[in-house]
Amino acid sequence: MTRKIYLIAALLIFVAGVLITFLLLRRSERNYVNVLPEDARAVAEVDLTTLSELGMTELIKSSLQCDTHMVERLGLSTERPAYLFATDEGRLGLVAAIQDMNLLNSELQAQGHAVESQRGLKWCHVDSWLVVFDRHRVLVMECDAVTNEVSLRKQMVEMMKSTKPASLLASLDSQAGNIRLAAQLDGSMLNIPNELVDKLLSLMLKEHPILQASVSLGEHAYSLSADLVQTPAEEGETGVRTSDVFHPIQGHLGETGPSCPLFWAGINISGEQLLQLMRKVPALRTMLISVNLFFDADMVIRSVNGDVSLAVTEGDDMQTQWLLTAQLSDTSFLRNVPSWERTLSLSSIFRFQVLQESDFLLVMPDNSSFYFGVRDDMLYVTPSATLALEACHQTVPADGFERNGANGRQFFVTADASRTLPILSSFLKTFARR
């Protein structure tokens, strides 16, 4: 009898051990996202399943010259999203779920990379990247010549043990798309060489807003939508906040402009608040003073209130042109057109011409021309005479190029995949070489 009790107890302990091991393994597999650093500055989620099913795969492969089957060859799971991230120190990294660890191990060795084992983890150097993985997760981080590798390895081991999710993951939940991004923005992290742009962006990002963005890929086009989410203003806080300048897009200009442009971008702004922000940048303030000597730039900018769109097209001569359209809350600046004519007629720098009652042509010192005017309470500006004739007219976006996704977002861009991916690829390669 006693022997039977021991056998039953041993069997129960064995079954319990198997169950605990199974649950721990499932938990490890399920919580691979906890490998992300808790204080990550930026996190991007990439839906590998949807990307692999899209008809754009071959287009992406030919444009970016990348191996779209690399994910499967590396033994990574295509059923779970991969995550890109940036640490608070600016170090880039990647986290992904593993479908077959042996495939990953074999592929790395086949490419001539030595794989070493330490305390249940496998390590490998791939160029300037350090890779660590186990049966369920892989973590990749930058490891260049100036990196303290001992310190980095310790950090990566702690990340592989982590049970806490990255704080920015919650910001991804409100996004919809094949690629979702959340980033804590700070003007000091940009390091933009152009002083004017750097100063303007630093002012816009002084409240450290969180950027929430998503990319949706379709068969013919892709789109990017984004919002800047800010903490509420503190009591007594003064000055222009980004949320004062940029508002949710209302969709009033979604059916204006070319039906199938290279790309179409939309925002919604308060011209009054934008003008205050521009005046805080010395170079822009000086420019506004100079322009106001000839015509009322301040008054025009202040009149913009609502949706603003920018369409970039490609003409029959393969030259790109653009059309800017903006909603106006006030068109009283048109009463000053006679004053503009008199002032600009005395200038040897600019040439100004009234084409119609509310349509104008401005020729710059370098002989470049800009057509602008007002139609149905909408301002348009373009260097193209053809686009000037079409400005503000209703149009129906071509199939696959709908702009409905812009509504309710602060920033929206949609682009023709077949014509812009090669351009984007060239830009990214040039940027990477720098």
Short characterization:
The chain is of the alpha+beta class and 434 residues long. Helix content is 33%, strand content 27%.
Distance between the termini: 78 Å
Quantity of strands, as a count = 18
Structural class: alpha+beta
| Main beta sheet strand tally, sense and closure | 18 strands, antiparallel
Uncertain stretches: 14-30, 61-66, 428-434
Rg, alpha carbons? 28 Å
Helical percentage:
25-40%
Strand content: 25-35%
How many domains comprise the coordinates? 2
- Mean pLDDT across the residues is 78
What form results from the Cα inertia axes?
elongated
The tally of helices reads 14
Fold and architecture overview:
By secondary structure, the protein is of the alpha+beta class. The chain folds into two domains: 29-168, 3-Layer(aba) Sandwich (Protein Transport Mog1p, Chain A); 241-433, no CATH class. Helices cover 33% and strands 27% of the residues. The chain contains 14 helices and 18 strands. The chain has helices at residues 2-30, 48-53, 57-64, 70-73, 101-110, 149-161, 195-204, 242-245, 271-279, 282-292, 297-303, 337-345, 385-390, 417-433; strands at 42-46, 82-86, 92-97, 115-118, 121-126, 129-133, 137-142, 179-184, 210-217, 221-229, 263-270, 304-314, 320-328, 351-356, 359-363, 369-375, 378-382, 411-416. It has an 18-stranded antiparallel beta sheet, with helices on both faces. Helix 3 (57-64) packs parallel to helix 14 and helix 9 packs across helix 11 (297-303). The longest helix has 29 residues, at 2-30. It is elongated.
